[in-house]
Specification:
With 402 residues, the chain is of the alpha/beta class. It has seven helices and 26 strands. It folds into four domains: 160 residues, MoaB/Mog-like domain (Molybdenum Cofactor Biosythetic Enzyme, Chain A), CATH 3.40.980; 48 residues, Molybdopterin biosynthesis moea protein, domain 2 (Alpha-Beta Complex), CATH 3.90.105; 81 residues, Beta Complex (Molybdopterin biosynthesis moeA protein, domain 3), CATH 2.170.190; 74 residues, Beta-clip. Helices cover 17% and strands 28% of the residues. The structure holds adenosine monophosphate (AMP) and magnesium ion (MG). The site of adenosine monophosphate (AMP) has 18 residues, from α3.
């Protein structure tokens, strides 16, 4: 089977088909659940609200009761309901969130004039059950509140909590070991850096992306361009996925694949029709660990991470791996594109009419970290796309920036 020069879609499909979510975990929803993907639906076990509830502070009375004044026969407060019925000429003092006596409407207190044990109202009497939040108006017992497969966030956790759930089954978070390779690569913070060395920018960046996409990053020390050093660095590392940075191509010092062949590497993707990021590869070691090989050029590695690492982590977590494409209008023309799918670093802005505009940076060199740091989107140019004009609609992926 040909594993080289695969279209981006096909490369992604092959990677995603190879991985499956691991064993499920039960987590406490108020502590460890943010960002986790539900493996079971959350169902309501009771109605919410569990009773007809008042939406206002005021008085409960029977709709259509035209009495000139009403006898105040009791009080219904949140958590302390009024337990009897309300008859003609009677009213019950009521507060927001309190149970509304059977059949009653609520008249807001701004319309009420209290005279001892009696109350009068300005304006016409209510004809229907005004200011009442009906039982089960939010959800009913048995409803599926959150289906399996959704990622939990603060708002969805509020729904699970309002259904009384304290725990839920979620998919596991894959452990992702990240190793930068290259004779010249040293960790940020190294004080005696030599003129021929450069700081590892992809390692910390990929670890951060991994965590933000729900994985558990494990950062390994950079390894030299030496097969034994690369092997030693990943030997025994417990991870579902190893992400290697650099040494992915076919140069004399691109030794990651040759080294991993000694661990029984089976390649599933060898090169991709992608710019930047052509040397990106994917495979499985004999021990079952997967490896995503990223090129060392920072823009190549980070584009490939958006296109492949993010979807892979989504599948591992039982989530949705589809790329979140949006549309935007070009602010300037672009030349026709070549045989590789081109993902350009770009800037998004809101136009005066509210539409989203996109401007690709003029320098798309894959080594530029500064351009990536200024970008907030990736602009997709399909293979052999014709020249584009300002105003044309193109596809973009928004980078998850704050
Ligand atoms: P390579 O993919 O190993 O051929 O590296 C391509 C280019 O990316 C070279 O200029 C490397 O110095 C640079 N590079 C490789 N790894 C990293 C890294 N982790 N951080 C920053 N630059 C890197
Ligand atoms: Mg290298």
């Amino acid at each position: 089977m040909n594993l080289k020069d695969l279209p981006v879609e096909e490369a992604r499909a092959r990677m995603l088909a190879a991985v499956t979510p691991g064993a499920l975990e039960t987590v406490a929803l108020d502590r460890h659940a943010e960002g986790r993907v539900l493996a079971e639906p959350i169902r309501a076990v009771r109605d919410q609200p569990p009773f007809d509830a008042s939406a206002m502070d005021g008085y409960a009375l029977q709709p259509g009761d035209v009495a000139a004044s009403f006898a105040v026969v009791g009080e219904s407060a949140a958590g302390r309901p009024f337990s009897q019925g309300v008859g003609a000429g009677e009213a019950v003092r009521i507060f927001t969130g309190a149970e509304v006596p059977p059949g009653c409407a609520v008249v807001i207190q701004e319309r009420a004039t209290r005279e001892g044990e009696r109350v009068r109202f300005e304006g016409p009497p209510p004809l229907e059950r005004t200011n009442v939040r009906p039982r089960a108006g939010d959800f009913a017992a048995g409803d599926v509140l959150l289906p399996a497969g959704v990622r939990l966030d603060a708002w969805r956790l509020a729904l699970a909590a309002s259904a009384g759930r304290a725990e839920a089954q979620v998919y596991p978070q894959p452990r992702v070991a990240i190793i930068s390779t290259g004779e010249e690569i040293v960790r940020a913070g190294t004080v005696d850096i030599q003129p021929a060395q450069i700081f590892d920018s992809n390692g910390p960046s990929l670890a951060t992306l991994t965590a933000s996409w729900g994985g558990r990053p494990i950062r390994l020390e950079p390894a030299r361009d030496d097969e034994d050093a690369i092997l030693a660095a990943i030997q025994g590392v417990e991870a579902e996925l190893i992400v290697t940075v650099g040494g992915a191509s076919v140069g004399d010092y691109d030794l990651v694949k040759p080294a991993l062949k000694r661990l029984g590497l089976e390649l599933l993707v060898e090169t991709i029709r992608l710019r930047p990021g052509k040397p990106t590869w994917f495979g499985r070691l004999a021990d079952g660990r997967f490896v995503l090989g990223l090129p060392g050029n920072p823009a190549s590695g980070l584009v490939a991470a958006e296109l492949f690492l993010r979807p892979l982590l989504a599948v591992w977590q039982g989530g949705d791996p589809t790329l979140r494409m949006e549309h935007a209008r070009l602010t300037r023309p672009m030349r026709e594109s070549g045989p590789r799918e081109h993902w350009m670093r770009a800037k998004l802005e809101s136009a005066a009419d509210g539409s989203v505009q996109v401007t690709p940076f003029s320098d798309q060199d894959s080594s530029l970290v500064s351009v990536f740091a200024a970008a907030d989107a990736l602009l997709r140019r399909p293979t052999h796309a014709p020249a584009a004009e300002a105003g044309d609609v193109v596809e973009v992926i928004r980078l998850g920036r704050l």
